[in-house]
Amino acid sequence: MDLREQARKLRQELVQFRRDLHRHPELGMQEVRTSRKVREALQGLGLEIRHPVANTGVVALLRGRSPSPVVALRADMDALPIQDRKEVPYASQVPGVMHACGHDGHTTILVGVARILAGMRDRLPGSVKFIFQPAEEGPGGALPMIEEGALRDPDVDWIVGLHLSPELPVGKVAVRYGVAGAAADAFRLVVTGAGGHGAAPHRAVDAIAVSAQCIAALQTLVSREVNPTDPVVITVGTIHGGYRHNVIADRVVMEGTIRTLDRSVRDGIPERMRRLLGGVAEAMRARIELEVERGYPPLVNDERVAAAVRRSAEKILGPDKVEVLDRPTMGAEDFAYFLERVPGCFFRLGGGNEEKGIIHPGHHPEYDFDEEALVVGVAVMSQVVLDLLGEGV
Ligand code: NI
Fold first, then answer.
1. pTM for the full predicted model
2. Ligand 1 center–CA 321 separation, angstroms
3. Distance 79 CA to ligand 1 centre (A)
């Protein structure tokens, strides 16, 4: 029986499992129930299960007829602090928490792949490691899982992950060669002036006026200091300051995100910000404090593994359903940490369906995906594993 048929046979169970997770979403590092459901679903398949790994994480090993090579597949399990506004029977039952990024789908797909591959273990020319990680949306579960040995014992040769994409129609897959996603660093900027009466600016240092110049200057850092062929995004996401309409603010606090694709560009940004913002503030008699917290690194797919994933997806879906993306996204993903250590590929699985009104972007309160994507995801992932174990890259 071919993989697509096998996956289709699981459809009802996959939908049921996914809807259960969707009804009971859990925030990062709190995926206690989800993690238990995953382990229950893997029971009886003959996998060696390690838990807890990084709190709620699960690593399940399927040994084939030879111990190596080893392919790892990864799914994230966490939901988001968003109120579900969908009118469907499987809507979230947890107020203010929702699977608005499809991680319930990713988790379900990995369980489905485990089911199928466990049924053919005698023919598997290697082993498969299933990694279910917490907290992709932050603070990040990939790195703690790696630190707790998720990629060792046995060592992983290749790793593959996927993300449902609402922009891509269900039935399609998109692969990107090389740099596919951005590094995401967070910053906090405090501007300190001197408070005073709104009618006497000369006796104060207006932290709001200084902040306005800082925000504008930050964008010239992007447009005037960095090579234009190296994408950089600096977004000021929050700004807080001031007390009253006729009071000059003594202090403003801003938070933002810095996105970069290139490691050396990334490394240089904090110092550039400090010099530029420090200079602006000094010129205006104010002071700044800047903290930059490094987040997820750029996501870089291995070209050969990406090519292998593309070939496998084409076997399942046909060449016209597999796109090669010509540009990266400035979004970030902590799968990047796995890819820093092991060659692999993170690809996009179509989840959108305009006819069914499934059009909302990720993190939207009405986000959903077409559940046919579960079948497609299971079939493609299973094929990827068989091809990597059988042929390598
Ligand atoms: Ni996500």
1. 0.94
2. 22
3. 9
